[in-house]
Amino acid sequence: MHQEQNESIMKKEFYKLWLPVTSIGVIIILISAFTISHQLLLIAALTCYVGFSSWVIYSHYCTFSQTKEKLTEQSREDQLTGLKNRRYLEDRLNELLAKCKRDGKSFGLVFYDIDNFKEYNDLYGHTTGDKLLQQMAE
C-alpha cells in the first residue's frame, strides 16, 4: 500500500513557480520560489504576484514622476534667491515672443546688475554677498 502511494505521488504533475527579480523593468534573475502540485494554485499564486508587481511598478512610476517634476522645477530656479534662472527665462521668452507676435503687442525686460559684486564678495565674504543677493531678490 505504501509503495502505491509513492507511485501515485510520483505520477502527479508539479508546476514550478519562477519569480523574476527586476530592476527598472529589466529581469535580472529568475528565482524558483516553490513547486505547486495543482494548476489552480499556480494560477492563483501568479495572479497575486502579477497584482503585487503591478502595484510596485505603479508606485515606482508615481515616485519617478514626482521626482522628475521636482527636479525640473529646481533646474529652473536659483536655490539661493528663489528667482527664476536663465533656463526658465529662455523658455518663457520664446512663449512671450510668440504670444506678442500673435497679438501684435510688445513687451519689455528689466535686468538688474550689481556693480562691482566680485569686489564686494572679496571684501566682505561670500556669506555677506549671498545675503546681499537675497535682499536684492526680495
Present the secondary structure layout.
Layout (H helix, E strand, L loop, with lengths): L1 H10 L3 E9 L2 E11 L2 H36 L11 H18 L13 H8 L1 H12 L1
Describe this structure in words.
- By secondary structure, the chain is an alpha+beta fold.
- It is 61% helix and 14% strand.
- It contains five helices and two strands; from the N terminus they run αββαααα.
- It has helices at residues 2-11, 39-74, 86-103, 117-124, 126-137, and strands spanning 15-23, 26-36.
- α4 (117-124) packs across α5 (126-137).
- It is elongated, with a radius of gyration of 32 Å.
- The mean pLDDT is 75.
Question: Concise description?
Answer:
By secondary structure, this protein is of the alpha+beta class.
